[in-house]
């Protein structure tokens, strides 16, 4: 029996065995269709019931208990990036979370609540996702132990776009970033970001809402965040795409990551009893400029 079945809500939430046989919830609301895996508490699909998906999912992704899913919204915790002898981008995205609640809200939105099992006594990690006309996600970390706890976090959202060459990211003008490919300290962003090569940038000290303008699909994707001082913009481009086994060679053309979190100098330290919430809300509207 699918362990998620007891959280079914007729007409809105259905437990399914999804790719790789992994348990997941299919969600249908008046405004959206979505698929959320228990593995990683991973929102794999979300978007309006009609039209192209908003989140990108790689055709070559693994769907396996010990591997991350390449697309959707990987939850990055408790560290960002590679770490010697430990899984890249932390353990949360390769852990089966406990689904503790599914709720039908007035108006038809669906709310799912997951907890991360392994942080038992000293930390509680909760992920709450509300699926409707917008996708609202909250990652809540509480220090329930007796000593300070330091971590990084990030909602590593993959967005589907029609053509990377025609896509623009707005909202980071005047913000300084570290170019992870050059290891340069700080470069200031001068305007909208356009893409002509591999891009891997950590923008720091920014709480800004970002917009992804896609003139081909004629839409604007808006990423509003709170409890986050870092924004990462990533596209692997040709060579890195070819090196990634779980990513199609041409898929860099149709995806873009705009990630919200707290990394490096903005790692969070919680004193005993403290908690922090990282919240990201994604919405889509017609692009008036297209
Ligand atoms: C981004 C990083 O957040 O994630 C990149 O800035 C990295 O450097 C990318 O390549 C993908 O990471 P992973 O571990 O999912 O392959």
Provide keyphrases for this structure.
290 residues, binds 6-O-phosphono-beta-D-glucopyranose, 2% helix, globular, 8-stranded antiparallel beta sheet, 1 helix, mainly beta, 22 strands
Summary, kept brief:
The chain is an all-beta fold.
Structural class label:
mainly beta
Largest pleated sheet: 8 strands, antiparallel
For the termini, the CA-CA separation is 48 Å
Proportion of residues in β-strands: 35-45%
Classify the helix fraction into a percent range: under 10%
Task: Please provide a written account of the structure.
The chain is built from one helix and 22 strands. The strands form four sheets. Strands 5, 11, 12, 14, 15, 16, 19 and 20 form an eight-stranded antiparallel beta sheet that branches. Strand 8 and strand 9 form a beta hairpin. It is globular. The model has no long low-confidence stretch (mean pLDDT 96). Bound molecules: 6-O-phosphono-beta-D-glucopyranose. The site of 6-O-phosphono-beta-D-glucopyranose has 9 residues, from strand 19.
